[in-house]
Records
---
Amino acid sequence: MVTSPRLRTEPDNSTTRLETTPARVTGDGSERGSLPGLSAGRAATITVESVSKWYGDIVAVSDVSFGVAPGVTALLGPNGAGKSTLLKMVAGLVSPSSGRILVAGHPPRGESADYRRLGLVPEQEEIYPFLTGREFVRLNALLQRLPKPDQATDDAIAMVEMGDAAGRPIGGYSKGMRQRIKVAAALVHDPEVLLLDEPLNGMDPVQRVRLIDLMKRLGERGKTVLVSSHVLVEVERFAESILVIVNGKLAAAGDYRTIRDRIDRHDHVIGILTDDPRRLAAVLVADTAIRSVRFDGPDRVIVETNDVRRCARIVPALARDHGIRLRGLQPADESLTSVFAYLTER
């Protein structure tokens, strides 16, 4: 085990400090042990140990340790929490200021074979608008020196169901289509580890369902899929386990249900788009799960609930029973700062 210097930070009340014991390296280069995020006996494909990253006086990530096993894991936290920095370090694009990261037992920054284990879908638009979707994916196949780049390109495009649009320039794609073609490029070399930074941003409901289904299928095939998100309600649909990052620190890690139970005890604010907000408000206010209802514009109702699961069930049901059309339901506080503050104070 390599001992790395730890960044010194002043104690505060906003996060929970996690201490871990050294992990045991197995014969296949993976690790087992008590790293946060790992269930008992599970081997880690991704190992992050005492990792910090700072830029001058700015601390982006502070003394973070966790392990990620095969399957789908969510890296959950508000915007600016350090999720993108962590993913870049795991991908080998950025070096930690201290600590170490291993992917399948190897540092991610090293030989070309180390990079081939990884596929990265960045949040930024790292695409060329003048290329067609097929050309963009094939370019990555060539960079990976695949023996059959054309076949690999076709297979990756088929996985994201972009065959009909693959011949069109990316500059004419919608945001959701650009996200899907980025996923195809990241999958073209069949990596062992797939890293996705806010991949569902900009996707319509149908596209989101398809990508979530793809992530789950990859996890079932034994791939290690690490997905960042700041939206609690979407994580439930694909993640087996969760790592919660707040202010650059690991606030919680483990089984989805355990963490969700803690989060559910916090009051949630949900925005509901509807064609008839006054009728919907009158129906909802009588339910015990609803603490308060207010209007936000001509077609939006803001609901505060202390039972988010019941609220998610009863809102569509009550709207249907009373003939009220819903157009959307999502967290009203996009940053979710209050929710994460609640979780880390427990």
---
Amino acid sequence: MRTMFLVVFLSFTFISHSQKQVLVFHETEGYRHASIEAGIQAIQRIGNENGFKTVVSRDSRFFTENDLSEIALVIFLNTTGDILDTDEEVAFQSYMDNGGNFFGIHAAADTEYDWAWYGKLVGAYFKSHPRVQTAVVNVIMPDHVTVDHLPEKWKREDEWYNYKDLRPDLRVLLSLDEKTYKGGENGDYHPIAWFQNYTGGGISVYTGGGHTAESYSDPDFLEHLRRCIRFALDE
């Protein structure tokens, strides 16, 4: 699991210290989403357009205190399964405890089920999902920068997760209307995007969209990603 290659699309030698670096981590030990490459490319484009450097890795050996100290935001892009060993978990928790920031996309909630700290960081775990279909997403915090570009009722197609162990204190940004699709199991409280202020001083953001490759060419979803990233970077 830890012998997978490290893919870094830029050399640290040429990175300006004034530019923030964002780690896009996509290791999988379960189902591997075919949309991951589209997601990487989308985040790289967002970085190029918004002035941050993107470091892309499928290798958990990046999770050392030294390497993470250079990173302003860690993105888990459709990660699955048990992907960090004990030392890597310690390094990641130390990163967050010292002001680091986290953004989980879709299957980030289908990751590290045996690590309670991680479940709290994300805000919930994946439980199940129905088939890919169109649903109505309600904007719960219409004035928040991550979603204020969206219509009040946002209709889009994706794979809609049901969640377990939802934290009660999530700052919910978007919620699913289960009456508009088949297979929802969370009832009237079905958040699909949220954030938390982490105790170390940083931010944890999660969005449940992003299963399909088409998501990463959807202008509204791409703008949502861009705004989530900038929010997590405090920009």
---
Amino acid sequence: GPRLQSACAQSSKLAQQYYLVYQVPIPTAHLVQRVASSGGVRSFGVSLLVCGWNEGRPYLFQSDPSGAYLAWKATAMGKNYVNGKISLEKK
């Protein structure tokens, strides 16, 4: 929906600004921290899964509307997230 699109647009803008200043892609953890702490997801009332690739390895973060964020190796969210997490734990 529109809230998710706004949160994604803000994340994209932050990543572009970082690249213009430092000439390297923004580290995934830094992007998630900036969006979560600036009220980015809080003001939109959405949870986000953000994945990226830094220093030769994948990263996955989940942020929630409170501004909290966690790093995961794998996770699930949404309507059927409990079954998704159970399935991931079995693997």
---
Amino acid sequence: MAFIAHNSKWVYWDVSLPSMAGPVTAAIVLEKLYHSEELRSVVWERGDCLDLVLWLWMLQDRDSDPPLTLSTQLTKTKAGNNPLVMVMTLLTGGPRYLEPLKVKMSALPYRKHRQFVQSSLLTIEAWTADPLPLGKDTPMWMQRALLVTKAFLDIPSYAKAFIRSQISGHLLHCSSLPHCRNLRGNTPAHELGLQPLKISISTFFFPPSPSIQSPDLVNMLVSELVLSGLLQTIVDYMLSLTEETRHPWVGWAEGTLRQGRHPLAQLASMLSDGKMYIATSNALERISKEQQGCLTAGWQQKYWNPFVATLNFHENARKMWTGCDMHINKLHICDNLNHHAKTRQASNDHGSRVCSNCLVAMYCSPECQREDWISFHRQECGSRRLSRIHGQLQSSWVSHTQKSYLLSVLTMALFDRELGNAGTRFLPRKVIDDEILMTGTDYARLTFEAKHISSDASWESDDSPNVFELNTWVSPHSETLVPVQALLKVSHGGVKLFQDPRSLTIIRDLIASRAVDESVRQSGPRKRTHLGVCIVYAGAFRYFVLGRFSVLRGLETTRVQLLNGFVKVVETATTDSPIPKNGGLRP
């Protein structure tokens, strides 16, 4: 079969498409061999048979326009049925043959991974191409090809090719074409029966077992789906049904904190990612005013209003973030715990400095870097370097820009709480000069200051050393005070995340700042240290963004200043501490 497939042009020289005749014959024979119980164990245990199947899947005739794949040719010649897709579906359906296939796929270079995904995309698009006759089995074949393509996503190079192909957006667009609207396919919610093809395709894409996938894969797939019409699809579905109807995206939270989570809540929890925010914001603008009015007036409002509130929260956060002169050399981060005690002249225009070894620690000046090296960084530099390399390999590394934004989000949430606007913190709020008296353009000191909205200060009613928690898993994002012990208990691989020397010093400073004499606290402006932690769920990982703040409560204004910020990245599946159902530090 390999001989016939590889030498098809001269073996079948007298047919109309000689380059594909041999591979077509080989695919048909391979399917028959698989269904033969007597020959299956003999044939498919051979590595060369698996090599042949992978080669057939990636085969493309570059002379045709557009490039013709074997699967596309089989789809046309077999009236929609495809023996190659059937064989690959059977082989990837269980570990017996899937694991050897993964070994062979891992040994292939990136260009072969890209070719495999491109062949899959061309194959699936062939089923939606007009005027190809579309049958009732078309969605089944498309979904089988999708499952084959997703079978190798745990291979990093393959996942990269999968992301760059933008396959999710392409296929959601194809499934929405006019001649495909009458097609219906299966979804994970089998009791709902068959659904329109665009709904069926979207449920097969996101998230592909998010608890074991990289953040880049999950965020890129979903942002492509949203840009290609996923949000409009969800809105149309919600408006066409009653409140009791179960939605078809029940598999979206598979392996995460909440099974069967509503898709709008799932999208809202991902808005910390820049691509997801931009895609969702643009998609919301395409929702008609009439539909938005219906969503806010009916039963849908319990899902729609929190989703929009969370989007508005991130819109305000990004306006503040981009309004603070946040270019590459002025990220408002300095890892020196003594940075706030330095004069402005000590941290002048040297530009941001990153440790040349670990590439993680960031400082505002040579003086801060030298001081922190002696105090802490000399002991932690090696481990932070290893963590960065490991994170980059798993696409879980938090860049300095992303870290800066998450710290800005945490600062704004704490700022709103300190102002006393507990009832409106997630509603749209204009950011104008007469409301925000000063936003942090001070170098490496992100600062927000505004007039009090309420006379009640959060710290006046709670002097215990608690930690401010912003949980982005909840929509709208929840904020609460948790005991510092809850932070100290978080562990990963048997190691307490926040019991390293730097974290313990920060926590001791928090406790010391609360031990203030009552007479001092009742006279004049009041200043204290506050800790905040922002929890972000990103694919298989959790980000703990720890911020150290100075809060100054004056007679008319409140000022919140970010002193330092650090990020801890852990794998959710291997975290020692149990994860509460609300996704926070404690139930």
